Amino acid sequence: MSKEEHHTTNPQDRIPFSHKVAYGFGALANNMLAAASGGMMIVLNLGFGMNPALVSWLGSIPRLMDALTDPIMGYLSDNTKSRWGRRRPYIFGGVIAAGIIFVILWQLPAGKSESYYFMYFLVVSLVFYLGYTVFATPWVALGYELTPDYHERTRLMGVQNFMGQWAYIVAPWFLVFMEIDAFGGIQTGAAVLAVVVAVGCVVVGVVPAIFLRERFADFSGSEGEATQTGSKGLLGVIWGFVQGFRYTVTNRDFLLLGLATFLVFNGFQLIASFQTYVTIYYLYGGDRESAAILIGWFGSVASVSTFLVIILTTYLGSRIGKRRTFFICVGISAVGYGVKWFCYNPEQPYMLLLCAPPIAFGLGSLFTLMGSMIADVCDLDELKTGERREGMYGSIFWWVVKLGMAVAITASGYLLNATGFDVALEGAQSEQTLWWLRIYDVVVPMASSILAIGFIALYSITEQRAYEVREALEERRGVV
User: Fold this and answer.
1) pLDDT tens digits, residue range 47-90?
2) DSSP helix/strand/coil, 80
3) How far apart are CA 7 and CA 467, in angstroms?
4) Least confident of 84-98, 124-138, 240-254
5) CB 154, CB 322: distance < 8 Å
6) SS3 226
7) Do 77 and 87 meet the contact criterion of CB atoms below 8 Å apart?
8) Residue (of 14, 154, 3, 146) closest to 465 by Cα position
């Protein structure tokens, strides 16, 4: 078999487009819950007068709980045995629970103390994120197993990523909705918005559980022993979790995917706010009103570009392979970051829009390719260990993403201070400060993208290797 051979997806391995859309509805619910749970927190400061530092803690503490609950939920999902499968009961019940609790979260009574609001929001948030994990972790894992085909996995992840992006088109309008005069205040607006978001997420979130079927609903390992948490006993469950966790975090290919994702995603997150500062204080000399228009246009161009990038990534990934597509897309993104240095031109500020399309190739391609590649890792892991661990792999991958984002957002404040930026100076920032703002905004994501390409170059699962692994698995399972 030639190393360059391109495999054609067999008809029986194709996922009907309606099923891809059904899985994509899960992405829409997942991303909308994430966008709303973070984007609405400004109300705690603007509407209820909470100290911004306390609000930031309310955003970070639940992420610490994810460090424990995500892998545990992944293990439970991998090892549950029921008449409805390993994933679907959790997806169905989890999104309903998350929706109900999200509504309760934002029904905050007026006239209470800051400590009351803090404790109420903290306790209910912890419960909400638990329900969110019960839904999201099995949903992610379900996508890894819907098809055994190397290329069809990319097409599936392309559809779900495309559909999930719509949440981030809607989310910027949340504040406008909550400020509608008819609500009589942003507090009431938040309570109403929570109901709208919750109902919408539940309606679309249950779709994957109702209309999709699992390929490994009653999976038996290589020795024919069905995995079932209830039959192992407490010690057996704990030992199984420890073993599964160890296999996952020591998987070389999985670690490379995690490192590459961390670099691309958090290289962007670390300096995400810097472009705003450069636009306001370098391009427009402190004129926020004029800068806001350019910032808005940049976001719009980037959003449209992201949709187009997802389509192109899906096409390329199913034609030339996932590693090569990653090299191309992240490479274009790195070039886009580099070109930004020259597009920061105070005489022609709108040159900055030229950078938006190439930069979008980074994040636009990342989660289409990573989901598909992790599915390939799960197959190789089964070949080596005889176990299916989609839930464990998915939970740890996304926990790393969330933890990395929290670290990047925290570190960005210190990096901003390192530039010498002083908000009191307004448009009179020093030349050195403006230079460092541009340097960090360009160099950090460009360097992290190049490093990510280096890690993926070490990733071992090529198209040929993926099909060899599949053939070996089917021979072991007795599949013709």
Assistant:
1) 888 887 788 788 778 877 777 788 889 999 988 888 888 999 99
2) coil
3) 9
4) 240-254
5) yes
6) strand
7) yes
8) 3
